[in-house]
Automatic annotation (TrEMBL):
Keyword list, A-Z: Amino-acid biosynthesis, Aromatic amino acid biosynthesis, Lyase
Catalytic activity: 3-dehydroquinate = 3-dehydroshikimate + H2O
Subunit details: Homododecamer.
PROSITE patterns linked: DEHYDROQUINASE_II (PS01029)
Protein name (database record): 3-dehydroquinate dehydratase
Catalytic residue list: 22 (proton acceptor), 97 (proton donor)
Enzyme Commission number, as recorded: 4.2.1.10
Length: 140
């Protein structure tokens, strides 16, 4: 099974930005933990701060991978274009968030992506990614 994790804007700064919200661990370190936990899966990782690059990545892998775990960051709340890209591909997408977006600013309470996704996971720290991956391993 092939899983693609895609992180959006500012998530390249995990471990150094707003530690009270996002924690102390950089994503590359956490990615190694995921790969060690799911040794029978291929887990690829991509991060971009650019909306169009995220869309291009969705198009590139959206017909060949078994699942996509997407943390689109602030684009979650603004990008109809990413929502359209998710709707256009065959690979199911799980929207994830490290923080509980519903305990934060009001504008974060709305996801432009959720309706095009298989599901949404928020508020479990970095483990939101693990839960996203596990969702592809269970029958729903």
């Amino acid at each position: 099974m092939k899983i693609q994790i895609i992180n959006g804007p500012n998530l390249n700064l995990l471990g150094v930005r707003e530690k009270s919200i996002y924690g102390n661990t950089d994503f590359e370190t956490y990615l190694q933990t995921l790969r060690q936990r799911f040794t029978d899966l291929t887990i690829d990782y991509y991060q971009s701060n650019v909306e169009g690059e995220i869309i291009n990545k969705l198009h590139e892998i959206g017909f060949t991978y078994d699942g996509i775990v997407l943390n689109a960051g602030a684009y979650t709340h603004t990008s109809i274009a990413i929502a359209d890209a998710i709707a256009a591909i065959n690979t199911p997408v799980i929207e994830v968030h490290i923080s509980n977006v519903y305990k934060r600013e009001e504008f974060r309470h709305t996801s432009m992506l959720a309706a095009s996704c298989k599901g949404v996971i928020a508020g479990f720290g970095m483990n939101s990614y693990q839960l996203g991956i596990e969702s592809f391993l269970i029958e729903l």
